[in-house]
Amino acid sequence: MIPMTLNEIARVVGASMYDVRDAEALVTALSAVDSREVVPGGLFAATVGARVDGHDYAAGAIASGAVAVLVSRPVGVPALVVEDVQFALGLLARHLLEHISPTVIGLTGSVGKTTTKDLLAQVLERHAATVATDRSFNNEIGLPLTVLRADAATRYLVLEMGAGRKGDLTYLTGLAPPQVGLVLNVGTAHVERMGGRLADVAEAKGELVEALPADGFALLNADDPYVVGMAGRTKAQIVLYGRSSEAQVWAEDVRLDDRARAVFELVTPSGRAPVELDLIGEHQVSNALAAAAVATALGLGAAEIAEGLTAARRRSTGRLEIVERPDGITVVNDAYNANPESMRAGLRAVTALAGDRRTVAVLGTMGQQADASRARHAEMGRLVADLRFDVLIAVGTGDPLAMAEAAESANQGVAVHTVEDVAGALRLATALLEPGDVVFVKASSEIGLGACARALAGA
Question: What are the structural domains, with CATH classification, of the chain?
Answer without folding.
Answer: 4-83 (3.40.1390.10), 100-311 (3.40.1190.10), 321-458 (3.90.190.20)
